[in-house]
Structures are given as structure tokens and as C-alpha cells.
Amino acid sequence: MPPLIAIPANVRQVCATLTKAGFEAVAVGGAVRDALLGRAPGDWDVATSAHPDDVLKLFTRCIPTGLQHGTVTIVTGHGEASHVEVTTYRGDGAYTDGRRPDNVTFGVPLVEDLARRDLCVNAMAYDPERDVLHDPFDGRGDIARKLIRAVGDPVARFSEDGLRVMRAVRFAASLEFGLDPATVAAIPSALAVLGKVSRERVCEELRKILDARLPSLALVPARTTGIIAVIAPVLASTIKDTERWAEIVDVAPRRARLAALMLPIGNKPTVEKLLRELKFSNDELRIAAPIVGAIVGAALTPVTTEIDVRRMLSPLGRELAPIAAEVLTAAGAASAAVARTIVERGDPLVASELAVGGKDLMEAGIAAGPGLGKAIATLLAAVLDDPARNTRDQLLALALT
Ligand code: ATP
Ligand code: MG
Fold first, then answer.
1. Probe residue for ligand 1, chosen from 46, 88, 97, 118 as the CB with the greatest number of ligand atoms within 8 Å
2. pLDDT beneath 70, residues of the chain
3. Which of 25, 65, 118, 228 has the fewest C-beta atoms lying within 10 Å of its C-beta?
4. Which residue from 230, 1, 26 is spatially nearest to 117, judged by alpha carbons?
5. Top-level class of domain 146-227
6. 68 C-alpha vs ligand 1 centroid, how far in Å?
7. CATH, range 1-138
8. What is the pLDDT of residue 52?
9. Domain ranges of the chain
10. 204-227 per-position pLDDT tens digit
């Protein structure tokens, strides 16, 4: 019989070393879940009955990553992939700040370590020595039923750590599972606690939602339970049709999704402010905010002619124009097909794509200074109206009239 779970040799070796020294050692959490799902796990985490001091003594190459939480990283070879995190079984004390336990206790049995975890599918452990799955909350049943369910009382678990409500909807999307009704029903009661969670952690969950094949599986419950209203009030108040909003995000390719998500807001400064508050990177907001601004501005007076669409795409520049076309396509905008044509054909959209530059114009006798800038703007406007004008002769003639 093959083992229940195929476990990498270095992780197995770490468990074997701990077991030979008389301790328990099991693979735990997300990797066990992913392996049972037939997905390639990212990192393997090991949980052990050994105290962190014992772990440090047993391995020659280790990094004391988070000793206060009981975590030691074992280096089993070269590179990040060789790192195995070993965490001592722990019970969490009371949660008073809605973010982390006030204290943790070592020396608890495995079942207690599993009981502090968020979701039943994340609360399984696999013992590679005995080929036994420890699954006290029927995570395997949930995998078979494709169900996201909190461990124990969902109201209590969600109020301990406000991030868990976001993790619940995020896993619904990334695993393509449904949400257990009692688990969803507990979300509104934990929203005040979600407000206390750091924006960085919220942002990380949002990114993972956007990485899913169908973000709507998280976005729809996040909107209906009030999660969106807590993390992004201006967005929540502008969404008119939740299903439609989420569907546009699903259809958009990954790089266009943040703009699609923010589309209901409809103006650049507000999107910028929200994304900054949510700790999205400058790169992310430099894509999403201008696109939302440009598209919604154009939507007020529906643009469908090639001239209008080029004028709409021009301020976005060469890099953002294709992404804007993707958002328009996902949103089913009237201008989507025209925008795609303009991008694919490579119509000039910015001054640097004109057949003449500032140097050519100065050689032709136009003085440097504000007049030169105005001349270039006039030429760009002419080329946006008709790309066929983008030849050196035509533009020089135009500039000198
Ligand atoms: P992925 O890494 O694919 O997002 P994961 O399940 O590995 O999923 P991690 O954030 O790496 O998620 O956490 C590892 C494990 O720690 C989880 O499987 C879960 O058992 C536990 N865990 C993580 N965050 C929480 C939390 N906020 N509350 C309770 N348990 C948690
Ligand atoms: Mg993980």
C-alpha cells in the first residue's frame, strides 16, 4: 500500500530525527490539506511535541525564526525550498486584541494544537512514521464535501482573530469550496474584530483572492456578510450589483483584476486613497487607479469611435492601455472591441511614439521652451485623430504651419 500522503524526503527526515529522539512529529496544516486534495503543497510545516530548546539541540543547521511562538526553521539543504518550519504543539491563551493570543502554552497534546487552527480542512496532521492521519474535526469529510467550516464554534473562533473571516472566504475561492452555513452566519458578529487587523494582512488575503481562478467565490460572500464594508467602505457603498461586480473580476485576467475590483468607485483619487490605506504597492495602484479613472470618465459619455477610444487610452500610456482594454472587455463595455483593435494594431498613443521628437522640431526651427511642448501636444492630438498622419514629413509640415 502506498502511504496516505507522499511527503518530501527532507520533511520525512526532520520528522524521523524528532521521533528517534522520543518526540512526536507530524506534518500539519496547509500542506496536508493540499496533498489530500491532490495539489502540490507550497511549504511543509511540521508540528512536534518537542520543546523549541530540544529542537534547537537536535539539528545542527537551524534558524530560531519565532521562538516565542515555538517555531524553529530547519535548514536541510540549499535554498529556501530546503527550509522546514518546526513548531512546538501549542495551545493559544485568551485573545483580547482580536489579532493574536495573549500567551501560548507549550506541552499540550496534538489535538489541542489542531483545535486552535482556523478551518477544519487546515486542522489535520499526518504522521509519516506511522502513516496515520490525525483528523479530529473531519477535515477529510469537508474536503470530500468541498466545504469550508470553522473549527469548533465559528462565532468564538472568528472573534478571537479578525483575519479568520477573510481566510474563510479566501479559501472558499482558492479551493473552490462552498461555505458552511453556520460558518458564514458567524461572520457578521466578528466584523468589529476584523477592523483591528493590520491592513497588510488584509491586503495579503485580498491578493490571494484575486489570484484564485474565480475570485467571486470569495467576493460575493465578502460583500454580503459585510467584510467589504469593513475593509473598503467606499467600495462597498458604490457596488450596485454584487454578482455583476464579482463576475467582472472573474473574467478579467490577473493583471486587470485590481482595477476591475475597484471599478464601481469610479474615480482615480478615491481608488488611490483606498489602495494606499490597504497597503497595496505603488506598482499595483499605479495600474489600477488611472485605469478606473480613465474608463469611468469615458463611460459617462459612451465612447465607441476609434478617435474617442484613442483619446481615452492616450493618458494611460503604452503600458496601461492593454490592461485597460482587458478591463473594458471584462466589463462588457461598448468600447471594448475598439480598444482591443487599437492596442493590437499599435496605434500611436503617446508623444514618444510620434514620428518626430523635440530634437527634430528644434532643428526645423521651433524654439525650445513652452512652445515646443505645445507643438508636440498638437501633433499628438492630430495623430490620435488619425494615426496615418504619423510620418515625419506630415508632422513637420503640420508643426510649421
Ligand atoms: P496557504 O499557505 O496555501 O495560504 P496555509 O493553510 O498553509 O495556506 P498558512 O497561513 O500558511 O496557511 O498557515 C498554516 C496553518 O496555520 C494553517 O493551515 C492553519 O492550520 C494555521 N493558521 C494560519 N493562520 C491562522 C489563523 N489566523 N487562525 C488559526 N489558524 C491559523
Ligand atoms: Mg502555508
1. 118
2. 298-301
3. 65
4. 26
5. mainly alpha
6. 18
7. 3.30.460.10
8. 95
9. 1-138, 146-227, 232-349, 351-399
10. 999 999 999 999 999 999 999 999
